[in-house]
Amino acid sequence: MDFASANRRGDRPPALGSGPGRGARAGRWIAVLVVVAVLHWIAAQWFERNRVDLNPANHEHVPVQVALLTPERVERQPAPKPAAPAPHPPAPTRKPAARPPREQHVLSALQPAKPNEPAATPASEVAASAPPAAASANAPVNANANASGAAASAAGAASAPQASQGVKFSVPPSAELDYDTFYNGVRNAPGTIHWASNAQGYEMVVSVPLPFVGPFVFSSHGGIDAFGLAPAQYSEKRGRRAEDIAIFNRSDRKIGFTRTPASLPLPDGAQDRFSVVMQLASLVRGDPDAYKPGVTRQFFVVDSDSGENWPIETIGDETIRAAQGYLQTRHFKRLPRHDGDQRRIDVWLAPSLGWLPARILQTEPNGTQFELVWRGKLNVDGPSAVDASPSVPSATSPAPAPADASTVTSEPAPAAAVDSTAPTIIKP
After folding, report:
1. Which of 237, 268, 258, 252 is nearest to 305 (CA)?
2. Is 254 helix (H, G, I), strand (E, B) or coil?
3. CA pair distance 332, 29, nearest whole angstrom
4. For bias kind Pro residues, which ranges apply (predicted)?
5. CB contact set of 6 (below 8 Å; sequence gap of 6+)
6. Is 203 strand, coil or helix?
7. Could you tell me the domains of the chain?
């Protein structure tokens, strides 16, 4: 009995999880974990190589607000008034030239002087005294020309246009800007900002490519009024979605939207989401010293379906890294618009680029970041027409030529009048 039961116990198979099979399974799991770890390490290395730290020093500290600036009228140069035509000088009166004496080969210096006649004057003294004797030569022409020039200068100075009082304002020149674009720190295809400006208006088109979604295109165009840039229309095109438009109706002073039937009153100095960047650049470009750390300027900014006040504060001067080196910039940050506002917008303006934006960073409430960083050379068409001040005639500038200057200058200058009583030196 005992041997039979022992034999039955010996015939049982080994328990699961014991023996050589257990070691083989453990080895397979270890190999899988090693492969996963290696793949994670490769992915981390790829991410680090493609991630660019564009601003090594992350300045989270915001300076204390020292001034709050609201929309104000900007300083503009009025169009110059047409200058009044200079009066034409009267035709010079010609005096008949004295006839030479009959003794053609006799020097008058050898003739005895008459009782009431001055002594003969040498030729060198005659030449030296010719300019003071303008009363007998070109005196009428020179006197009239000087008088007309002085009158024109005085009239020009009196009618010189005076700049209207207001904050300094200088629109950046037209440019085609290229930017590196980043989505959460990973580089994407380059983006562009098309900026065109003149004395009458501006146009701005921002194109940002995004993977799997399509390009985001934001455009704004309008004029320039007493408060700076004056948008007429702002549009947003996000990937394959329909375009949303905001219309600034300045005749009715209303802002309408295609996305919603609601409308808003149009305040002075209102901007859209991207024209506000160039409005800020124009103000800083006009008076850089006015924007010190802590100075905050408030803008009314319109989106695709709403509008609200944006307080933008000056953080300070910072150095950022771009594709071709480092740039000195001035950092501006939009402060929270209301309690719980987690969306953040930062702008860096570069004085070496004419205070055009060198970097724009938008941080969403969930932490997603969209970024533009300037790259390449800046192609500037020329100085903005708004900056060009009208030329003002000065007292030292020559007077404008009369309309019939050709007829005056075509005549030979009248010969110097000679006093018939004065002795004359005649060459043999």
Report:
1. 258
2. strand
3. 53
4. 79-93
5. none
6. strand
7. 67-74+166-380 (2.50.20)
